[in-house]
From TrEMBL:
<keyword id="KW-0344">Guanine-nucleotide releasing factor</keyword>
<feature type="region of interest" description="Disordered">
    <location>
        <begin position="1"/>
        <end position="25"/>
    </location>
</feature>
<dbReference type="Pfam" id="PF02141">
    <property type="entry name" value="DENN"/>
</dbReference>
<dbReference type="InterPro" id="IPR001194">
    <property type="entry name" value="cDENN_dom"/>
</dbReference>
<dbReference type="InterPro" id="IPR051942">
    <property type="entry name" value="DENN_domain_containing_2"/>
</dbReference>
<dbReference type="Pfam" id="PF03456">
    <property type="entry name" value="uDENN"/>
</dbReference>
<dbReference type="GO" id="GO:0005829">
    <property type="term" value="C:cytosol"/>
</dbReference>
<dbReference type="Pfam" id="PF03455">
    <property type="entry name" value="dDENN"/>
</dbReference>
<feature type="domain" description="UDENN">
    <location>
        <begin position="39"/>
        <end position="430"/>
    </location>
</feature>
<dbReference type="GO" id="GO:0005654">
    <property type="term" value="C:nucleoplasm"/>
</dbReference>
<dbReference type="GO" id="GO:0005085">
    <property type="term" value="F:guanyl-nucleotide exchange factor activity"/>
</dbReference>
<dbReference type="InterPro" id="IPR005112">
    <property type="entry name" value="dDENN_dom"/>
</dbReference>
<dbReference type="InterPro" id="IPR005113">
    <property type="entry name" value="uDENN_dom"/>
</dbReference>
<dbReference type="InterPro" id="IPR043153">
    <property type="entry name" value="DENN_C"/>
</dbReference>
<protein>
    <submittedName>
        <fullName>DENN domain-containing protein 2D</fullName>
    </submittedName>
</protein>
<dbReference type="InterPro" id="IPR037516">
    <property type="entry name" value="Tripartite_DENN"/>
</dbReference>
Amino acid sequence: ATEGKEEASAAENNPSRVPQGKPGERSSVLYSAGQFFFEYLVVVSLKKMSDGHYEPKITYQFPKRENLLKGQKEEEERLLQAIPLFCFPDGNNWAPVTEFTSETFSFVLTNVDGSRKIGYCRRLLPSGRGVRLPEVFCIISCLGCFGLFSKILDEVEKRRQISMAVIYPFMQGLRESPFPAPGKTVTIKSFIPESGTELIKLTRPVDAHLEHVEFQALLQRLSPHLILHIFASAVLERRLIFLAEELSVLSQCIHAVAALLYPFTWAHTYIPVVPECLLDTVCCPTPFMVGIQMRHLERVLDQPMEEALIVDLCEGKILRAVGDEEEILPIKLQNEMLTSLNRHNNNNNIHTSEQVNTLVSEAFVQFFVRTVGHYASHIKWSKNGSGTFQERAFCKAIASKTNRKFVKKFVKTNMFSLFIEEAEKSRIPQEGK
């Protein structure tokens, strides 16, 4: 049992947008252009054990690391131990198949020092005849950019159908290329037998804080009304459980919910797809945002858990709620956001996913601007340049009664404290305000 607990703490994931270091410390590592695209590419395959069950094991790792220091070696071993669990979180009841639709999902691992790594996964069936088992190609990177890595995984999958040997030179070329700045493109040359040299262009979106997000995934499955209930629960740092069968749906929707909080950051347990052996995470008394496969619904409902919001992404409904979700957000602002979300829903076919991302994000950023946008004028600066936030004056300055009632709860959250700690350190107004 202790082993599971250690893995749970390794998996206490925070959303991939801003790594959480020590409280209040934000590193911009996810956005830095010019660094390595990825740390590892691993292949996780299912190996038959003596009892007939299949267990996920790493069968290929690139690059192999030599001459690691003791501490680095331990960290690498811990990382490589956790990866198979998250590539096949659905447990061990697999059987060989002849057909399998490949799927893309991601997970986040938090290191002991608070730094974060993201695993971008493509689960596919290797080409061949007869029954065989799916395998997962997993790219480990500390860079958050889902669209870009999905495209890289497309290339990996295309090469896998030819032979494993063709993947290596492509990944080597990628490893030697610098990660592009937002809005910029990097071109990778890659040779494929039979079809010659290809040029693969990888472009980062202009808006770096939305590059790990697909809001459309959320709008396709939930009504704007329910999205606001979820947002209200997340803003007050409650316990949120999302259910769906597909790993891609879970990881996309949870990343999207976490991104609605921008410019704030979810600072608690965050596991887009909970491996079967960590299901008791839902008994945790602290806040969490987790994704669980629908097949485990009965087990989850049987667990002794504190109040939580349980969302069924397959049916687009809430299975369990605290009951006050409707009253958390100020009603006037709630209605404005509803109008805004409904508008995007109606024009869904006109917008590209980038446009939907921008429109949705804007509606939620505006909510924060309207409620807490005046925070900067309530930081008192001393002569030595350190700032102190005047919480009472800040709350008092809010004219609307309903807005003030909401803000008094919001200032008690961890995400608001971290944001303010950051603001007290820098005299430059925070991004997004």
